[in-house]
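Let's practice the habit of predicting before peeking. Look at the sequence and jot down your guess about where helices and strands might fall. Then scroll down.
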Amino acid sequence: MPENTLYYGDNLEVMRKYLPDECIDLVYLDPPFNSNRDYNLLFREQSGEPAQGQIKAFTDTWQWSERAYDEFCQTCPKPALVELVQGFVRTLGRNDLTAYLVMMAPRLVELHRVLKPTGSLYLHCDYLASSYLRVMLDIIFGAKNFRNEIVWKRTSAHANVGKRYGVITDTILFYTKSANYKWNMIYTPYSEEHIQSTYRYVEEGTGRRYALRDLTASMQRASSGQLYEWKGIRPPSSRCWAYTREQMERFEAEGRIVYSSKGYPRLKVYLDEMPGVPLQNLWTDLPPISSHSAERLGYPTQKPIALLERIIQASSNEGDIVLDPFCGCGTAIVAAQKLKRRWIGIDITHLAIALIKYRLSDMFDLKEGKHYRVVGEPTTVAEARALAQQDRDEFQKWAIGLIPRARPYQDKKGKDTGIDGVLFFKDDLKDPKRALIQVKSGRVSVKDIRDFRGVLEREGATLGLFITLEPPTRDMTLEAEQAGFYTTPLGNLRIPRLQIRTVEELLAGKGFEIPSAALLMGVAQAERVAPTSEQGALEM
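Done guessing? Here is the structure:
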């Protein structure tokens, strides 16, 4: 089975086609919430300010489809689930909410199928549909395998809430495939108040904080090895020693028993040996992605890495496979990679897949084809041409994604500026420079290059990168040469100011020449896990 793979496409089709039964250790999914909102992907400029425009990532709106409903009812292998969904439709009507539930039902069935018997599923949702989703999961996984409803405080208080209470939390539903599931207890630090009141003693010489604990236990727990006299002392009536004599002797040898003025023993428990407080189901200690957060990419539904790290650490081990079927900007993928898990991500937009590639490259220096696979994106000119015919916008985003760290560009007013994408780079100690990108999927001519030269002059861009599906003419090549060269401040490298590459060349690995002192993403950069530095010019 493929590992460390990104799939482009409908997750239902991908799971049915590529994922065998019981192959996944942990599922995390953060599906759209049926909020009837357009989600725009807002990139940030290098200054941290909002970019000139927003790119629509997806529309979180589900419309009723009688065909989808009939297909689900006819093909679902769980009659009880069909009856439940039919009941939702009868009572709630044929509307956007029930359309959303019809969409989710077969996908939850598939996720149960691919999950190992020892696996877990975390479904991240909000108040709009969480109650309906939980009942569906009870039928699919069995109510006895419901473990927790986790409440995460995802934002601060709202001032304008109208005639209701402000909504500042998300819900995460935690289910397991069976009672025999992987579990690693997560602990949170003690509060300062708890430390001062409980671990109030400080050991001379070491400075270690400690508490004194009772060494007795209820007689209800007693065994024959706990009924004895210690140093002339017996436990109070109806009590016994909490430990055997051998354990007490070990504590004594380690200097862990402290005696009162009357000779009564107590156990010394060091603060630095305690794991903390076992994690509860109310998570208020993980701050959301704020406008000033260092890890913020601008993706509308981005979750903090710490949230995904907590889930992955609790319910999987190193080497396990984590699946995110709605992977968006790839936070679950990033967290899995950091924690040495294998991973599979699925998304239906090329923009999301491209953004994940950026993160994997910037944070881990992972390369597509070497460290992970991408399935479903064009790999040949014929497939690229088919994508262009099917969806020109998706083709454009995919083509821009062939340039590492480039990102789409869209004017905030939606007008055609002659710019399809942008790449920021830095080849000195001064401000970042821009390379503008234009993508053509149809016939091209020298006029296209002449117009693009005009765009570069108008925008004051350093480089122009022209991607074409069709081969350029000789006149186009000569016109591009007329744009001259850019000389780098470091190394005095001469780089063609306007470069043309065909899709075929980019697929074959012949990229654009970009100064490489310090390439920068067009989105906010996350902390690199395995940074590298190179000097010179790279083909991108």
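How did you do? The first strand starts at residue 5 and ends at 8.
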